Known about the structure:
Layout: H1 2-16, H2 19-48, H3 53-60, H4 67-74, H5 83-90, H6 93-105, H7 107-116, H8 121-132, E1 141-142, H9 143-153, H10 157-173, E2 182-183, H11 196-202, H12 218-231, E3 241-245, H13 252-256, E4 260-262, H14 263-268, E5 272-273, E6 285-289, E7 298-301, H15 303-309, H16 315-329
Antiparallel strand pairs: 1-2, 3-5, 3-7, 4-6, 6-7
Amino acid sequence: MLHCTRRRALGMTLAASPVLPLLLARSAQAADTGFESFLASVQAEAERRGIAAATVSAAFAGLSPDPKVIELDRHQPEFTETWAEYATAVLSADRISQGRALFAANRDLLARVTRSYPVSPGVVMGIWGLESNYGGYQGGFAVVRSLATLAYSASRGGYFRSELLAALEILGHGDVTPRNMLGSWAGAMGQPQFMPSAYLTYAVDFDGTGQRNIWSDTADVLASIANYLVQSGWRAGESWGRQVLPPASLSPELAASSATRPLVAFSRLGFLGLDGSPLPGSTIPARLIMPGGSAGPAYLVFPNFQAIRRYNPSDFYALGVGLLGDRVTS
Length: 330
């Protein structure tokens, strides 16, 4: 109690002192000056890269660090989700139902997209569904402000500075305005949730409007996702993988192994299709994944699974994409 009383007395003394507001004002002024100097250095670098000064000035007008972004960056939660919990969330009845309706509505568009970028329509739908709930949630943060905040204050400042420069390059192309360049607190943009550098590499103007609009143009969204997969090594005409029935005598070593074998080798080990039918006698490389442990479901995944993982390097994510896409398009 005495300790708390002393704290209150000290706080009252400082609050009553004319020195404290002056110190706080100087601290805020120093922070503002530091951020302004940082922005000036980014603007100079952007102009050296050929980005117009007017583009950068418009993007940086009135810019200040976003305290919410700083809070989210410094207090990111640690997740230890099980496969069962993850699958329940991403493969919900509502998400599957909504995906089926959107697949039906965009069937012709997807056919055109996948003729130009030969990937599975299902995996495009799966990524669209997982990344932004088919565009329903894209994030409401101003991307330039978020990236500038992180480049100035985050531990990976160099990475976010590079992404900020990429965002300025996008604005220079005229594909979007600073006001409409919205995304997640970490700078992932639009319905595919591309970071600016990924946008520059993979986003496409599929319907010829002159802009690569991944925020509200469904054709550009789906084609950009498909282009990402093609450039990530997607093999046309092949599946991402399939659920299988493991043999009753499955060894713990095989269950834990990440070795790749021809699909026919798993057939010889006693693996069956989910309906109990024999697996194809294919030599396609396959890897066994049992995300819930040896008592849970088993999947054999093929090279295209790695293309999905380049979008997000998580087995849970890639399985979620593949399974959601299969259910939406079946």
